[in-house]
Amino acid sequence: MMSNREIEAAWCMPEVAKEQKELADCELEKSVHDIAPFAEFLRILGNLNGVEEVIDIGCATGSYGVLLKGHFPDIRYVGYDISSEMCLHARDRGLDVRDAMCDGLPQICRAGVLLLCAVSLEYAKYPPYALWRVLQRNPLSWLMLHRVRCHEDCGRKVDERSYCGLDIPMWRWNRKELDVLFENSGRQYAWHTWPKDQRQFTIVVEPEA
Q1: What is the mean pLDDT of the chain?
Q2: Is the dihedral of CA 156, 39, 67, 74 positive or negative?
Q3: Half-sphere exposure for 34 (CA within 13 Å, toward CB)
Q4: Which DSSP letter does residue 195 get?
Q5: Which of 6, 83, 155, 164 could form a disulfide with 2 if both were Cys (CB 3.0 to 4.6 A apart)?
Q6: What are 82-127's pLDDT values in tens digits?
Q7: Do residues 83 and 75 touch, judged by C-beta distance below 8 A?
Q8: For 179-202, how does the pLDDT look when each residue is reduced to its tens digit (9 = 90+)?
């Protein structure tokens, strides 16, 4: 199984960024209703009140930023990624994107912000701790954990065929363990099942009351 350092090195390769851009270009040319992650993101976001800004943690080449520009132009978008090559491609789309290795991840101390984690925390060294840190550091923000896949047993990493044909260890969450984590945080949250793909979920955590 690859180490986290090896995963980060692979993600930052220029050819991986090029492949991700080509994949995103292909997906963005289609109707959002044909791409389940895009359709569900827009559907769920449209039902949230008071979101003024989306901060995309692990934005890659900025697909969700493009969606926001097209469907919610009044919501500001900022993306973060550890790959400078990914950031370059996202900026070519006219997006505000920061290099997480240089700038660090944000700590939000204002209302109206939604933190989007779309298959990004799953690659952290220990994802439950990374998720807990995000919740603790950003009490005034919404959190959208998007494209969640669960494992029937306890949460653990499994090899997934990913970018450049590599088998990348990705965390599979356990629903009961997530429920305990969110309940311990003291914040309200909701699971959203995808109508067209009931193997995947989106979890929305509300700001602290």
Answers
A1: 88
A2: negative
A3: 6
A4: T
A5: 6
A6: 999 999 999 999 999 998 865 556 677 789 999 999 999 988 888 9
A7: no
A8: 999 999 999 999 999 987 778 899
The domain in which residue 139 lies consists of 4-205
Is there a contact between 119 and 162 (Cβ–Cβ < 8 Å)?
no
- E-strand stretches of 49-205: 53-57, 76-81, 97-99, 113-118, 142-149, 156-161, 167-172, 189-194, 197-205
- Number of domains observed in the structure of the chain: 1
How far CA 127 is from CA of 14, 80, 124, 145, in Å, comes to: 26, 18, 5, 12
Residue 112: give its domain's CATH number. 3.40.50.150
CA of residue 7 relative to chain centroid, distance: 17
Angstrom distance (rounded) from CA 81 to CA 74: 23
Instruction: Give the number of other CB atoms < 10 A from CB of residue 163.
Output: 16
Alpha-carbon 135 to chain mean position? 14
Task: Identify the DSSP state of 206.
Answer: P
Q: Is 26 helix (H, G, I), strand (E, B) or coil?
A: helix
pLDDT bin (cut points 50, 70, 90) of residue 146 is: very high
